[in-house]
Amino acid sequence: MHCATSGPALNILHLEDSPADHALARLALRRAGVECTLQQVDTLPDFERALAAQRFDVILADYRLAGFTALDAWKLVAPLPAPPPFVLLSGAIGEAAAVDAMRLGMADFVAKDDMARLAHVITRAIEVHEARRARAQAVAELAASQRRLAELTEHLQSSIEQERAAIAREIHDDIGGALAALRFDIAWIRRHSHDPKLQRRADSAAETLQQALGASQRIMMNLRPPILDQGLVAAVQWLAANFERRTGVPARVRTGGEYIAVPPAVQLVAYRTAQEALTNIIKHAQPRQVRLELADSEGMLTLEVTDDGRGMAPAQRDKPKAFGLKGLQERARTVGGWLDVSSQPGRGTSVILSIPLPPAQSLVPAPRENLPDNTESTEGAPSPARAPAQASLPPAAPDAPGNTP
Could you tell me if 89 and 117 are in contact, meaning their C-beta atoms sit under 8 angstroms apart? Predict the structure, then answer.
């Protein structure tokens, strides 16, 4: 049966065992100017076959039919991937039962003695359904976009770290080797020359060369610190010691163990987080002291970098070009972690990185002499000791073979 008017036609499935009530519904829709195709079924098997055969814009259903109710019909509709609006059109149901039915997910209820409302209820149900569908689609597209962004971020970070490691190796092998050989030659000239002027020039060249060696070491350490090969604890200790040496600000390290075994990707994320946090402290915080806490507890790696400096207002963290913290947050997500930042003006800042670890990860004891004197271990009292060894360029060796003409 067709309800003839202008506009796009609706395909409506009407679950009704009374031909008279079906005719009344068709008449009400026609009078309201709703163009539609109204298909009637009166048994549950016919209803199920109709759902499988075509797509409907809306379903109208009497509540109580021969041998079943609208609730049985709803059980067939609800699991569908995109169920159409389901409107109760009945006279054999109370208001409380209608409310309960709507709580299950049905769109609305119209009493048969108020058929004039039917067109309005159908229009509204379809609008709400379309709005929900559009919202669900937008949410799905946003989630897909965020997933692609996370994958791109992970790929970029991995590529950057690989390039950093490659550049660091080239500096060490090529530039470092050339500078070391040059240092041998300058030392030979200095020893074998009796001209004071030439000796002074050799001394000046040796001093300049030493500055170049220091700069290349610093660049290598920033690109891909060899200290990472000694583990995350040693790397964080080195960062703290370097920060304290550069700024004069005390930087204390507290660890949950002398060695924490974590996957390489997690280790790199934690290291870069500590590095960036300390860099931000140097640029902005003006602190009196800094604390770094590193722990592996209950399957969770946590790194906290805290200062007692200037702090920052929430608006500063949300600035459009505040890429430092945003970059750390994205980096944490690449290993399933997250970043929390707590700060108040005048009360310092705390940056906390949390990363779930695989079940197999555990603490592996390391020699206590690897703990520098700015480190406290929660496993025992702090003990003064040397800092972790740092990779360096080849040292000078007087009259090394191959450097004497």
Answer: no
User: Residues 115, 8: one domain?
Assistant: yes
User: How far apart are alpha carbons 287 and 336 in whole angstroms?
Assistant: 31
CATH of the domain at 301: 3.30.565.10
Q: For residue 19, what are the domain limits?
A: 2-134
Q: Is residue 239 part of a domain?
A: yes
* Assigned token pair, 256: 């949950």
Q: Are 243 and 351 in contact (CB under 8 A)?
A: no
The DSSP line for 359-388 is TT--B----GGGS-TTEEETTS-----PPP
* Per-residue pLDDT tens digits for 63-103: 888 889 889 999 999 898 889 999 988 876 777 777 788 78
Residues counted in the chain: 405
Q: Which pTM does this prediction carry?
A: 0.54
Q: Which of 370, 351, 350, 266 is nearest to 308 (CA)?
A: 350
Q: Which residues of the chain have pLDDT under 50?
A: 1-2, 4-6, 361-371, 380-405
d(CA 230, CA 236): 11
- The answer to whether residue 145 is domain-embedded is no
Distance between CA atoms of residues 94 and 101, nearest Å: 11
Number of domains in the chain: 3
Do residues 127 and 183 both lie within one domain? no
CB atoms within 10 A of CB 85: 24
Whether the CB-CB separation of 203 and 195 falls below 8 Å is answered with no
Q: Which amino acid does the sequence have at 365?
A: P
**CA 124/CA 118 separation, integer angstroms:** 10
- The reply to whether 288 falls in a domain is yes
Q: Is the residue at 146 inside a domain?
A: no
* DSSP SS3 for 301: strand
The amino acid at 284: H
User: Whole-angstrom Cα distance, residue 89 to residue 142?
Assistant: 37
- Which is it for the CA torsion 209, 210, 215, 219, positive or negative? positive
CA distances from 205 to 182, 200, 213, 391 (A): 10, 9, 12, 24
**Phi, psi (degrees; rounded to nearest 5) at 38:** -110, 110
